[in-house]
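Posting for a labmate who doesn't have an account.
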Amino acid sequence: MSVDALKNALPAYAKDIKLNLGSVVTTSSLTDQQLWGAVLACALATKSARVIAEVSAEAAGNLSDEAFQAAKGANAIMAMNNVYYRSVHLIGDETYSTMPAKLRMTIIGNPGVDKVDFELWCLAVSAINGCGRCLESHEQVLRQSGMPREQIQEALRIAAAINAVAATLEAEAALLTV
């Protein structure tokens, strides 16, 4: 199971997605941990069983157990935070922004891996989940930590490619049942 298996499963009309997936995993300037943590966290965020199975097997060979668990944690905490903070933003009443969330999120402060890596994974998952507030927050932390915009953009490209793979493969699977 691997990223190559996902690329090979994509239909001809998704050639751009196939090429982009290959590019984001082979030409990255991110560390292996940053790259594979982002790929895994994004795969989990898509909720596609096929993408999760293929990516998790390859990610396990590229991540320590701690990093693997932290990438899963980034997806889990962002599944909660993205809903909450996106909702607070979309309501449009700034009073909600001043109210404490009262949601436990200690993993962000102690993720078990380098905080910059975890923030990068949270940013990538937030891109898939569409939370502008979380994207802004995580991008600011990454920039304050000295991460260049080009590497932050790489995490966004990973999120875009993994999400497109999942959407394409899930759509193809659904079309087979019609």
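Reply:
Got it, the structure tokens are right above this. The chain has nine helices and no strands.
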